[in-house]
Amino acid sequence: MSEQALLGRVLAAIRIVLLGVTAVLQASMSAAYLFGNRSFYEPRWLAETAFAALALVLVVAAGWILRGRRVPPGVALPAAGVVLIASATATATTPGEWYLHARHWAFGLTGWHLLVLLLERTRPVLAAFAGHAAIGTTQFLLVVPLNRVSLGETAIAIVSVLGFQIAVGLIVQMVMRRLRAMAATVTERDRAATRAALAEQWELDQRFRAAEQFGSVLPLLAGLADGALDPRADDVRHQCALAAARLRLLFAENDDVPDPLVHEVAAAVDIAERRGVAVSFAVSGDVVPVPTAVRRMLAEPVLTALSAARTRARVSLLRTAEEVRLAVIADSAVTTGSPSRSPDVEVTSDTLGDRTRMEARWQVTS
């Protein structure tokens, strides 16, 4: 399981626990105070309507929370407004002498509803609690005597109830920030390990490729050194040109460039031009990401044809969203070697007289 998935599951579990705690508090303590003393709340239907509104908010929120998702802002913010209105309505129906006591069932319950809706939204949840405190304080001060004792009791009640709920919300957010930071650290560590593994694999691949190329060049050099091969022969010159082009292509693969395929084909063109071959190179289309192995297969026909060209050659690269096509026409019949084939790259070759046309085609994979 990835770190992000684990973080999501932890957060979903916290939401479900908070939803369950709020539902139990409303169904047990708040319901007991309201319906056990229903004749004291006036008007009674208004108090029961406020209770039903708070219950309905929980039901709506449960539709997302029980599926492991947070309540979307388009629902959470209006629902928070409904909760504040229901709280103020319930407070208005509560006898004044019950303010700051347990039978004032809506005041403490409201904070839990706000946490259910706005737990992961720091500014909205703080604004909602500030509004709840302001509304509650105003309603308290309208019914209690304005003296130091009553004001102190009001402040203590508000701070003790809402302070605990805000602390719960802030602690949850702090824990989630720590978990996100840990997940980001682990993710970055995994990325670094992946980059290191890829770099190591790339280095091994380059060493293997270099050994392979040098292994094919050494017999050619040995043959030239002991006189077994005649450097004036066309096939020997073709082999030398092909070996030089492949080595140059191998070196070009190490370069960090924005368009590797064009860069590598241009390296092969440069080798041919150094031999006196006039080469035209045309590129059409935007850059398309091509894997290294596929680039090698695409470039192989170009190397084969350019190494055999005598005076002129034409290379064209066409790139679309669906495929990459690399074609070459050289003024010499290719009689030695054959382009490498693979299941990914389709290679066609035609020779007519002293002209050779080769084309490699790769279907872009998503």
UniProtKB/TrEMBL annotation:
Organism: Amycolatopsis endophytica
Domain of life: Bacteria
Protein name: Histidine kinase
Keywords: Membrane, Transmembrane, Transmembrane helix
UniProt keyword Transmembrane, yes or no: yes
Transmembrane segments: 12-33, 45-66, 73-92, 98-118, 125-142, 154-172
